[in-house]
């Protein structure tokens, strides 16, 4: 037997130990992630279970017992009580218009600050950052009276205008940093070809930055969809309620129907989950492109 043949078993043994450790680490990580997923999904599973119970089943078996059948009384009761079809349309309309408007404002502001290099750019970006740190409770008093004076109180347009500005402040801060590293060669090449500022923006900057803008759109939609405080203050008519506000006001003052509460939470959760699943690939692609850049 040669010396090379004598060393081969030792080499295999030496290489198998790190491989075994890597496999063990992978399985341990997978087990931890699975346990974390179970912990995160458990509340949603409890909501789904209780949404299809009768009040008697909930009272006798508690929140963790399984329903004897698919009882939809809680779903229909909540749907009819708040006119959930109209409420759902209000939330979709407000979140969509805010997301589109905020993305457009973000593009215009960040283009001027990130590529246009306006004077005082640093202070302007800092101001946008400060706006994002202000609590809504501190802004609601002037916003409330401004909406009253402008005739926008109890109007969806008040919420749309306010959240378009608020969301675009964060978008401007984020997108300005992205455009600060935008390849100047592309801009200069377009300008040499005779493109003006608007042409450079819409034909060069926006197409290249589309993944980042789609991520901002998804974030703006979800954040606006989940907003409760300002819509609760500014929208008081039942026909103008959004989904979070409808979930908050459905309960009585001294009574609580746990099954209808679970049903309302399920109906309020499903549209957001569907939207996230539809744009999941867009979101992951945009984040990956940003990481690669």
- Number-wise, the strands total 0
Helix and strand string, N-terminal first?
HHHHHHHHHHHHHH
What fraction, in percent, of the residue positions are helical? over 70%
For the termini, the CA-CA separation is 54 Å
Number of helices: 14
What's the Cα radius of gyration?
Answer: 27 Å
Low-confidence stretches: none
User: What percent strand?
Assistant: under 5%
Task: Specify the overall morphology.
Answer: flat
Structural class: mainly alpha
Question: Averaged pLDDT, please?
Answer: 82
Summarize the main sheet. none
Description of the structure:
- This protein is an all-alpha fold and 293 residues long.
- It is 80% helix and 0% strand.
- The chain has helices at residues 3-51, 55-61, 73-82, 84-115, 121-133, 136-150, 156-179, 184-192, 197-208, 210-225, 229-234, 243-249, 258-278, 280-292.
- α5 crosses α7 (156-179).
- It is flat, with a radius of gyration of 27 Å.
SSE layout:
Blueprint: H1 3-51, H2 55-61, H3 73-82, H4 84-115, H5 121-133, H6 136-150, H7 156-179, H8 184-192, H9 197-208, H10 210-225, H11 229-234, H12 243-249, H13 258-278, H14 280-292
Helix pairs in contact: 1-13, 3-4, 3-13, 4-7, 4-10, 5-7, 7-10, 8-9, 10-14
Offer a concise description of the structure.
The protein is mainly α. It contains 14 helices and no strands.
């Amino acid at each position: 037997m040669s010396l090379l043949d004598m060393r081969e078993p030792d080499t295999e043994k030496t290489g198998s130990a790190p491989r075994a450790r890597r496999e063990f680490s992978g399985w341990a990580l997978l087990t931890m992630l699975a346990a974390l997923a179970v912990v995160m999904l458990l509340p949603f599973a409890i909501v789904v279970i209780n949404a299809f119970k009768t009040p008697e089943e909930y009272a006798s078996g508690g929140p963790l017992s399984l329903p004897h059948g698919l009882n939809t009384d809680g779903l229909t009761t909540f749907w009819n009580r708040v006119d959930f079809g109209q409420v759902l349309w209000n939330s979709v309309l407000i979140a969509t218009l805010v997301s589109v408007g905020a993305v457009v404002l973000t593009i215009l502001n960040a283009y001027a600050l990130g590529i246009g290099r306006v004077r005082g750019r640093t202070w302007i970006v800092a101001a946008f950052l400060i706006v994002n740190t202000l609590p809504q409770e501190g802004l609601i008093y002037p916003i409330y009276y401004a909406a009253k004076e402008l005739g926008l109180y109890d109007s969806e347009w008040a919420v749309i205008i306010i959240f378009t500005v608020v969301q675009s402040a964060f978008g401007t801060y984020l997108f300005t940093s992205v455009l600060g590293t935008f390849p100047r060669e592309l801009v200069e090449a377009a300008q040499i070809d005779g493109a003006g500022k608007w042409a450079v923006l819409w034909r060069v900057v926006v197409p290249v930055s589309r993944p980042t803008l789609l991520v901002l759109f998804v974030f703006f939609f979800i954040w606006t969809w989940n907003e409760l405080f300002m819509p609760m203050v500014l929208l008081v008519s039942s026909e103008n309620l959004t989904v979070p506000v409808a979930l908050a006001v459905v309960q009585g003052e001294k009574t609580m129907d746990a099954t209808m509460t679970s049903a309302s939470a399920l109906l309020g959760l499903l549209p957001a989950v569907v939207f996230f699943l539809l744009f999941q690939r867009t979101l992951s692609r945009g984040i990956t492109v940003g990481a690669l850049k």
